[in-house]
Amino acid sequence: MNKAIAASIALAIALAAAQPFAAPVNAMNEQGTAVPVEQERDFYDKYMKQFVHNENGEIIGTTRETSLNTDWLHNVSARNSLTVDGQSVDADIVLDGTYLLIPLRPVMEGIGYELTWNAKNKSAEAVKGPIWTSVELNKDHYPYAKMPIQLGKAPMLKDKMMYVPLQFASEVLKADVSLNEQGDITIQSRPEQIPQDSFGGMHWVIVVNGESIGVPTEDVFTTEDDVMVPAEAIGKALGYTVEYNKDTGAYEFVRGAKWIALKEGGTAAAVGNMNVELNTAPIIKDGKLYFPFGSLADVFGVKARIDPTGVIGIQEELSS
User: Fold this and answer.
1) Are 103 and 89 a contacting pair, CB within 8 Å?
2) Which part of the chain has CATH 3.30.457.10?
3) Which residues, other chains included, contact 220 with Cβ-Cβ below 8 Å and sequence gap of 6+?
4) Does domain 68-189 have CATH number 3.40.50.1950?
5) How does the average pLDDT of the chain come out, rounded?
6) pLDDT for 10-26, tens place per residue?
């Protein structure tokens, strides 16, 4: 792949910033054929509409209205060449106006997300470890770190599959996206990072069913395996009574007919008559029981996510 042209075109789909290239590169002319240009600035000036400049007048990025030559975009769409984390995706690339749209499910599943479709509001929720986002049909609203991002184009439905702008991969999923001069699209995910609390100064907030439960930030900490959260505080916020059983050494959570038992050092939680394997063993610290965030969903039957700012969101799933 010609890395210079890939980076140039990647900027056109709203990646972070332009990088300077000293050597000549190839760009597409109005007929969609490759032509040499001396500098990347010539490429931007000829084929892009909007720029972001620094105080020295240098191009450092583009607005989301930026677009490439439409004939060339048609060629990219017709080529249908999409690779996600090294695997070819068998799906269409859709061109809608000047926006290239990619299929949501195969792209997100290709980089390790689990998708849940909500038929009632026509939306999809996606979870990958502590990372969460959602996409709603016909709504230009893409959450990232509690903040809605607008990409200038709402998701659309085609052949019973949801499509999102290519910018979604870079700006929401934070993946590396590139296009080469042949029109091949490559999406490469970045290594997942668990938020760090001790050295990174993370300020943790736990929100249960839309309300902060008021635990101090030091009541959340990370280990090599997971983020540890206060089990008793979360259980009570979910409506459980919590008692310590001296005979068994377990903390018992009771709400109606539901019974859960957690024990320090245990590799499984007792949920009714079943044993549920835990991501890592619970820990007692300063007289409090801490539980792995990654096991909240399986044990308590909730949806749980952490956004990059340190907000831990826990939401009970409504029974149908």
Assistant:
1) yes
2) 68-189, 205-316
3) 197, 204, 206, 227, 228, 229, 230, 312
4) no
5) 75
6) 444 433 333 333 233 34
